[in-house]
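Researcher: Quick test of sequence recovery. Tokens follow.
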């Protein structure tokens, strides 16, 4: 493509995006096409001659700078910065992040206890942890701990007592606890695990402590929400998805580790064809040793643009506004006696449900399922669901950059109308 073609295509693309933004309210919130429709419109194989600029832009250094900026914004301990023993790296997803730190933790433990112990290593997390951990654990036994004896009293956070009991039991039968994953902002209900006490338990048992803040990490750039990651000082690794709630397009998952050597020791390879003066002389951070793939995209550019174009102030306003809108929705639900708010709202997700009539033996699960279907079929709103303590729960998440108060109010009206039609 020459300069004039590039200009022409870029103008077309900008017009397309601007027109889309102008007319966004005329579209249904969910795509109307069937899964698989694109396959039929595209050739079966990739073009023979790729012409990618991305490989040319190896900007390792920008990534280091940007992740240090973000770590400082989150007030992470200094050892997560590249100036210390650790550092940050952009992974594609939180799922990849947990996999790489699990591999590092495994290597670290096996170096300590001997390679034969592989089958004895155990991973711990609450039953509210994202399924990506289960995927990363293939081959290692994983304990999914029930959050606590009375779930809702701890808002579905993992109880340190439950963790201690499980570790003590496993050690007694000859197993080796080696990895704990805590979550700040669980997928189902945005529960927050108590990092400080969990981290201390992990440390005293020589375990790797990973904190998954994929969604809620973004909120912690606001001083008033930073306390949700208090205790991160005990963590070996911390992850947040800039592509979830930080205005950065997919994919961009920021991972920090306390000890970068742990990653390098488990993931480093040094084949002849990759040797070059800079990496041999250890003059550069070789991110290939911090991740699964060899090649990498120039993901730091978009994070850098977001941080520079918005500035900290506007990013904090953005988060605060979403939380304010979610609070508004929570208030509307609470005022209608036909509904209940199921767990206290912490960030920008509201878990709620329509109350069933007295003698329903399925806790109103079908009713809420029907409500979800009815609401989503209008094409005006899209809500999702989860199951908490056996109850089918509706989830209203605020997270789109263009959402305003009037959208929340009209979404609530749709919900009320559909509930009236069902009851
Ligand atoms: N962790 C949490 C808490 C999540 O909510 C999610 C996704 O919703 C993930 C991990 C997985 O994120 P990713 O799609 O980046 O792998």
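Model:
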């Amino acid at each position: 493509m020459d300069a004039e073609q590039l200009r022409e295509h870029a103008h077309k693309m900008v017009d397309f995006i601007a027109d889309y933004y102008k007319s966004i309210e005329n579209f249904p919130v969910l795509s109307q096409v069937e899964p698989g429709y694109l396959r039929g419109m595209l050739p079966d194989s990739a073009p023979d001659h790729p012409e990618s600029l991305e490989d040319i832009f190896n900007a390792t250094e920008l990534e280091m700078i940007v992740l240090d900026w973000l770590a400082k914004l989150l007030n992470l301990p200094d050892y997560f910065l590249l100036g210390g023993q650790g550092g940050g790296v952009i992974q594609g997803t939180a799922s990849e992040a947990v996999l790489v730190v699990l591999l590092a933790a495994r290597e670290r433990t096996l170096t300590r206890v001997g390679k034969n112990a592989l089958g004895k290593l155990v991973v711990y997390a609450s039953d509210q942890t994202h399924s990506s951990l289960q995927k990363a654990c293939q081959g290692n036994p994983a304990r999914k701990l029930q959050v606590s004896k009375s779930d809702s009293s701890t808002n579905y956070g993992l109880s340190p007592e439950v963790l201690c009991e499980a570790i003590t039991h496993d050690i007694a039968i000859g197993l080796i606890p080696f990895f704990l994953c805590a979550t700040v902002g669980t997928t189902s209900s945005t529960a927050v695990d108590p990092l400080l006490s969990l981290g201390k338990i992990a440390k005293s048992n020589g375990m790797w402590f990973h904190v998954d803040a994929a969604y809620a990490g973004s909120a912690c750039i606001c001083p008033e929400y930073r306390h949700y990651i208090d205790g991160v000082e005990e963590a070996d690794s911390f992850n947040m998805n800039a592509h979830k709630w930080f205005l950065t397009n997919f994919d961009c998952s920021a991972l920090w580790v306390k000890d970068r050597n742990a990653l390098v020791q488990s993931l480093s390879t040094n084949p002849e064809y990759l040797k070059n003066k800079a990496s041999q002389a250890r003059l550069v951070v070789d991110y290939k040793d911090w991740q699964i793939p060899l090649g990498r995209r120039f993901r730091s550019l978009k994070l850098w643009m977001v941080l520079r174009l918005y500035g900290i102030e506007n990013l904090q306003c953005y988060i605060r506004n979403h939380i304010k809108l979610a609070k508004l929705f929570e208030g509307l639900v609470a005022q209608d006696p036909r509904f209940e708010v199921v767990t206290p709202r912490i960030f920008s997700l509201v878990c709620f449900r329509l109350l069933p009539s007295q003698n329903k033996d399925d806790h109103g699960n079908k009713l809420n399922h029907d409500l979800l279907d009815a609401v989503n079929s209008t094409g005006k709103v899209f809500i999702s669901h989860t199951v908490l303590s056996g109850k089918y729960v509706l989830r209203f998440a605020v997270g789109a950059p263009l959402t305003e108060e009037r959208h929340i109010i009209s979404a609530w009206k749709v919900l009320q109308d559909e509930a009236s039609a069902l009851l």
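The radius of gyration is 24 Å.
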